[in-house]
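Continuing the series of single-chain predictions for the mutant panel. This is the parent chain; the variants come on the following pages.
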Amino acid sequence: MITHEHSDHVSGLPRLVRARAKKKKPLPVFISKLTSPLIDWETDDPAPPVERFQAGSGWIIGNVVVQSFTIPHDAIDPVGFCFHAEGVKIGIATDLGYMPESIKVHLRRVQVLLLESNHDLEMLKVGPYPWSVKQRVMGRNGHLSNAHTCDYLEADLDSGVETLVLGHLSEHNNHPEIVRMGAAQSLERRGLAPRLVIAEQHRQSEVFAY
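Parent structure:
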Protein backbone atom coordinates (compact mmCIF):
# COMPACT_ATOMS: atom_id res chain seq x y z
CA MET A 1 0.00 0.00 0.00
CA ILE A 2 1.71 3.15 -1.28
CA THR A 3 1.17 6.60 0.24
CA HIS A 4 3.00 8.61 -2.45
CA GLU A 5 5.80 8.45 -5.00
CA HIS A 6 8.74 9.99 -3.13
CA SER A 7 11.85 7.83 -3.21
CA ASP A 8 12.05 7.28 0.55
CA HIS A 9 8.70 5.51 0.26
CA VAL A 10 8.99 3.54 -2.99
CA SER A 11 12.66 3.00 -3.82
CA GLY A 12 12.50 -0.58 -2.52
CA LEU A 13 9.16 -1.38 -4.13
CA PRO A 14 10.34 -2.81 -7.50
CA ARG A 15 12.86 -5.11 -5.81
CA LEU A 16 10.28 -6.33 -3.30
CA VAL A 17 7.76 -7.05 -6.05
CA ARG A 18 10.35 -8.92 -8.16
CA ALA A 19 11.46 -11.00 -5.18
CA ARG A 20 7.90 -12.07 -4.49
CA ALA A 21 7.31 -12.85 -8.17
CA LYS A 22 10.33 -15.18 -8.22
CA LYS A 23 8.76 -17.09 -5.34
CA LYS A 24 5.53 -17.27 -7.35
CA LYS A 25 3.76 -15.23 -4.68
CA PRO A 26 2.67 -12.10 -6.60
CA LEU A 27 2.43 -9.05 -4.37
CA PRO A 28 -0.59 -6.84 -5.12
CA VAL A 29 0.24 -3.13 -4.99
CA PHE A 30 -2.44 -0.64 -3.95
CA ILE A 31 -1.69 2.83 -5.28
CA SER A 32 -3.71 5.91 -6.17
CA LYS A 33 -4.69 6.47 -9.79
CA LEU A 34 -2.62 9.63 -10.08
CA THR A 35 0.45 8.18 -8.37
CA SER A 36 0.53 4.92 -10.31
CA PRO A 37 2.05 6.28 -13.56
CA LEU A 38 5.02 7.70 -11.61
CA ILE A 39 6.30 4.33 -10.38
CA ASP A 40 9.30 2.96 -12.30
CA TRP A 41 9.16 -0.82 -12.04
CA GLU A 42 12.75 -1.06 -13.35
CA THR A 43 11.98 -4.05 -15.56
CA ASP A 44 10.66 -4.97 -19.00
CA ASP A 45 8.47 -7.63 -17.46
CA PRO A 46 4.76 -6.97 -17.08
CA ALA A 47 3.86 -4.73 -14.17
CA PRO A 48 2.81 -6.51 -10.97
CA PRO A 49 -0.83 -6.77 -9.95
CA VAL A 50 -1.72 -3.11 -9.35
CA GLU A 51 -4.95 -2.03 -7.68
CA ARG A 52 -5.55 1.63 -8.48
CA PHE A 53 -7.82 3.57 -6.15
CA GLN A 54 -9.24 7.05 -5.97
CA ALA A 55 -7.77 9.03 -3.08
CA GLY A 56 -10.43 9.22 -0.38
CA SER A 57 -12.04 5.91 -1.29
CA GLY A 58 -12.27 2.75 0.78
CA TRP A 59 -12.17 -0.97 0.05
CA ILE A 60 -11.83 -4.37 1.72
CA ILE A 61 -8.84 -6.74 1.73
CA GLY A 62 -9.78 -10.04 3.35
CA ASN A 63 -11.34 -9.03 6.66
CA VAL A 64 -9.64 -5.62 6.77
CA VAL A 65 -11.55 -2.49 5.83
CA VAL A 66 -9.20 0.11 4.34
CA GLN A 67 -9.96 3.84 4.15
CA SER A 68 -7.67 6.25 2.32
CA PHE A 69 -7.61 10.00 2.90
CA THR A 70 -5.81 12.89 1.23
CA ILE A 71 -2.91 14.52 3.07
CA PRO A 72 -1.20 17.90 2.46
CA HIS A 73 2.24 17.09 1.05
CA ASP A 74 4.24 18.11 -2.00
CA ALA A 75 3.58 14.91 -3.92
CA ILE A 76 1.18 14.24 -6.79
CA ASP A 77 -1.60 12.53 -4.84
CA PRO A 78 -0.44 11.70 -1.29
CA VAL A 79 -2.65 9.71 1.05
CA GLY A 80 -2.82 8.29 4.54
CA PHE A 81 -4.66 5.15 5.58
CA CYS A 82 -6.91 3.79 8.30
CA PHE A 83 -7.43 0.07 8.78
CA HIS A 84 -10.38 -1.53 10.59
CA ALA A 85 -10.47 -5.19 11.61
CA GLU A 86 -11.99 -7.15 14.49
CA GLY A 87 -12.90 -4.01 16.42
CA VAL A 88 -9.46 -2.43 16.09
CA LYS A 89 -8.73 0.75 14.10
CA ILE A 90 -5.21 1.70 13.04
CA GLY A 91 -4.33 5.10 11.57
CA ILE A 92 -1.23 6.01 9.56
CA ALA A 93 -0.46 9.67 8.79
CA THR A 94 3.05 10.76 7.82
CA ASP A 95 4.44 13.29 5.33
CA LEU A 96 1.99 16.08 5.97
CA GLY A 97 2.71 19.76 6.41
CA TYR A 98 -0.14 20.42 8.83
CA MET A 99 -3.18 18.72 10.36
CA PRO A 100 -6.38 19.69 8.54
CA GLU A 101 -9.71 19.03 10.21
CA SER A 102 -10.47 16.28 7.69
CA ILE A 103 -7.51 14.21 8.88
CA LYS A 104 -8.40 14.78 12.52
CA VAL A 105 -11.81 13.28 11.73
CA HIS A 106 -10.26 10.23 10.06
CA LEU A 107 -8.02 9.63 13.08
CA ARG A 108 -10.85 9.56 15.58
CA ARG A 109 -11.56 6.32 17.45
CA VAL A 110 -8.18 4.78 16.62
CA GLN A 111 -6.51 2.35 19.00
CA VAL A 112 -3.14 2.47 17.25
CA LEU A 113 -1.75 5.58 15.55
CA LEU A 114 1.44 6.08 13.56
CA LEU A 115 1.96 9.82 13.26
CA GLU A 116 4.78 11.93 11.86
CA SER A 117 7.04 13.95 14.15
CA ASN A 118 9.62 14.93 11.57
CA HIS A 119 11.81 17.75 12.80
CA ASP A 120 12.80 20.02 15.63
CA LEU A 121 12.33 23.52 14.23
CA GLU A 122 15.51 24.99 15.72
CA MET A 123 17.61 22.04 14.58
CA LEU A 124 16.17 22.42 11.09
CA LYS A 125 16.95 26.14 10.98
CA VAL A 126 20.63 25.62 11.85
CA GLY A 127 20.98 22.25 10.11
CA PRO A 128 22.78 21.31 6.88
CA TYR A 129 19.88 21.59 4.43
CA PRO A 130 19.83 24.37 1.80
CA TRP A 131 17.40 27.16 2.70
CA SER A 132 15.05 26.15 -0.13
CA VAL A 133 14.75 22.65 1.36
CA LYS A 134 14.22 24.07 4.85
CA GLN A 135 11.36 26.20 3.52
CA ARG A 136 9.84 23.14 1.86
CA VAL A 137 10.03 21.06 5.04
CA MET A 138 8.49 23.86 7.14
CA GLY A 139 5.75 24.63 4.60
CA ARG A 140 2.12 23.57 4.64
CA ASN A 141 2.92 20.82 2.16
CA GLY A 142 6.05 19.70 3.97
CA HIS A 143 6.40 17.77 7.22
CA LEU A 144 4.99 17.97 10.74
CA SER A 145 7.39 19.49 13.24
CA ASN A 146 7.64 18.15 16.77
CA ALA A 147 5.78 21.24 17.96
CA HIS A 148 2.88 20.74 15.54
CA THR A 149 2.66 17.09 16.50
CA CYS A 150 2.58 18.00 20.18
CA ASP A 151 -0.15 20.56 19.51
CA TYR A 152 -2.25 17.80 17.95
CA LEU A 153 -1.60 15.43 20.86
CA GLU A 154 -2.57 18.08 23.36
CA ALA A 155 -5.73 19.27 21.62
CA ASP A 156 -7.08 16.56 19.32
CA LEU A 157 -5.62 13.09 19.90
CA ASP A 158 -8.44 10.62 20.46
CA SER A 159 -8.58 9.63 24.11
CA GLY A 160 -9.00 5.97 23.13
CA VAL A 161 -5.54 5.66 21.60
CA GLU A 162 -3.71 2.77 23.25
CA THR A 163 -0.46 2.81 21.25
CA LEU A 164 1.03 5.97 19.77
CA VAL A 165 3.96 5.55 17.39
CA LEU A 166 5.78 8.71 16.35
CA GLY A 167 7.83 8.26 13.21
CA HIS A 168 9.38 9.68 10.05
CA LEU A 169 11.99 11.44 12.19
CA SER A 170 14.56 13.47 10.27
CA GLU A 171 18.03 12.00 10.56
CA HIS A 172 19.68 15.44 10.60
CA ASN A 173 17.04 17.67 12.18
CA ASN A 174 15.62 15.65 15.05
CA HIS A 175 16.47 13.22 17.83
CA PRO A 176 14.32 10.42 19.28
CA GLU A 177 14.70 11.68 22.85
CA ILE A 178 13.56 15.19 21.88
CA VAL A 179 10.46 13.65 20.30
CA ARG A 180 9.82 11.40 23.28
CA MET A 181 10.16 14.19 25.83
CA GLY A 182 7.88 16.62 24.00
CA ALA A 183 5.21 14.03 23.31
CA ALA A 184 5.27 12.71 26.88
CA GLN A 185 4.78 16.23 28.25
CA SER A 186 1.86 16.91 25.90
CA LEU A 187 0.18 13.61 26.76
CA GLU A 188 0.63 14.29 30.47
CA ARG A 189 -0.94 17.74 30.15
CA ARG A 190 -3.84 16.11 28.34
CA GLY A 191 -4.19 13.44 31.02
CA LEU A 192 -3.63 10.61 28.52
CA ALA A 193 -1.28 7.66 28.98
CA PRO A 194 -1.06 5.61 25.77
CA ARG A 195 1.98 3.50 25.16
CA LEU A 196 4.46 5.83 23.43
CA VAL A 197 6.86 4.37 20.86
CA ILE A 198 9.43 6.36 18.87
CA ALA A 199 10.21 4.73 15.51
CA GLU A 200 13.86 5.19 14.61
CA GLN A 201 15.71 5.04 11.32
CA HIS A 202 17.85 1.94 10.74
CA ARG A 203 16.06 0.02 13.50
CA GLN A 204 13.17 -2.34 12.97
CA SER A 205 10.23 -1.75 15.25
CA GLU A 206 8.57 -4.43 17.29
CA VAL A 207 5.46 -6.18 16.07
CA PHE A 208 2.30 -4.63 17.50
CA ALA A 209 -0.25 -7.35 18.20
CA TYR A 210 -3.93 -6.67 18.94
